[in-house]
Amino acid sequence: MRLTKHHGLGNDFLIVLDEANDGPVTVGPDDARRLCNRRTGIGADGLIHGRGDEAVRMTLYNSDGSRAEISGNGVRCLGQAVALARALPQLEIDVVSDAGTHRVAVEAGPTGDTAVVTAEMGAVVVFADGELIGAEEALRAELSVGRIGRGSIGNPHIVAEVADPGAIDLADIGPRIELAVADGVNVELIRAASEPDTIEMAVWERGAGITRACGSGACVAASFAHDWGLAGPDVQVSMPGGVAEVLLGEPVRLRGPVVWVATVVVPE
Predict the structure, then answer these.
(1) Around Cβ 228, how many Cβ atoms within 10 Å?
(2) I want to staple 66 with a disulfide (CB 3.0 to 4.6 A). Which of 10, 128, 130, 207 is the partner?
(3) 36 phi and psi, to 5 degrees?
(4) 3-state secondary structure the chain
(5) Is the N-terminal amide bond of 251 cis, ω within 30° of 0?
(6) Of 80, 94, 72, which is closest to residue 247 (Cα–Cα)?
(7) Helix 72-85 and helix 215-227, axial crossing angle in degrees, nearest 10
(8) Consecutive sets of 10 residues in the chain, 268 residues long: mean pLDDT of each?
(9) What per-residue confidence (pLDDT) applies to 129?
């Protein structure tokens, strides 16, 4: 099995494309757990299987083998993988995920292993009062928080305004908040930065743990930050792995760099 490794702001993925192999490839949860392991495998936050030509069907597994509806950085990494497989410096394709169809535009970056990729992510939907209430209660029990937002961009998120996202031990509290609701939840801690239209964010991802960036989380956090008056409609989301740009509108668009890391052949 031939695969490529990419990262978007340090959020890394292994990508298997049928078109880069001799034919259809079978990929499942066990492959994700084995290959994403950072000690005994290649190492990544998730494994993506891409199928099809004109519209690429995306199946995403977290590093723990669980299925995820969408990943903003994952769909952007998939865009670069398709462009590289087709030897194209730029590309526009539709990617179909469990969360819908995403138009992905790949532009050449400053070096051969980098690209600037924009993905249409859909709409942020604010949850009703009763949804994710267990996660909100867990957050308030663990931390001193300001405003809290609960919403989805195809996958569930809880966003909390805190004094300093970087000072909080997400490795400790993240699992308890994630598991406070039946299907789990992504957790984003944010605050307004000193630069205009910029927020700082730390993230705990459902099924992957602490990651250096989260594209879908950046979109949902930017939407709430705008609603709360912390930023305008074009939001710079600063995460440990770097800065992503979120352009709010219909649809929400996520833009940022993607880096090809390696091509790997996994023996049968």
Answers:
(1) 16
(2) 207
(3) -80, -10
(4) CEEEEEEECCEEEEEEEHHHCCCCCCCCHHHHHHHHCCCCCCCCCEEEEEECCCEEEEEEEECCCCEECCCHHHHHHHHHHHHHHCCCCCEEEEEEECCEEEEEEEEECCCCCEEEEEEEEECCEECCCCCCHHHHHHHHHHCCCCCEEEEECCCEEEEEECCCHHHCCHHHHHHHHHCCCCCCCEEEEEEECCCCCEEEEEEEECCCEECCCCHHHHHHHHHHHHHCCCCCCEEEEEECCEEEEEECCCCEEEEEEEEEEEEEECCC
(5) yes
(6) 72
(7) 130
(8) 98 98 94 98 98 95 97 98 96 97 97 96 94 95 96 97 97 97 96 97 97 98 98 98 98 98 93
(9) 86
Q: What is the pLDDT of residue 6?
A: 98
Question: Which domains are assigned to the chain?
Answer: 2-120+254-265 (3.10.310.10), 125-249 (3.10.310.10)
**Rounded distance between C-alpha atoms, residue 264 and residue 246, angstroms:** 32
Cα dihedral sign for 56, 79, 81, 47?
negative
- The tokens describing 198, both together, are 């910029």
Q: Residue written as tokens 């205009």?
A: 196
d(CA 97, CA 253): 16
Is the model's pTM score more than 0.90? yes
d(CA 26, CA 200): 39
Q: Return d(Cα 22, Cα 107) in angstroms, integer.
A: 27
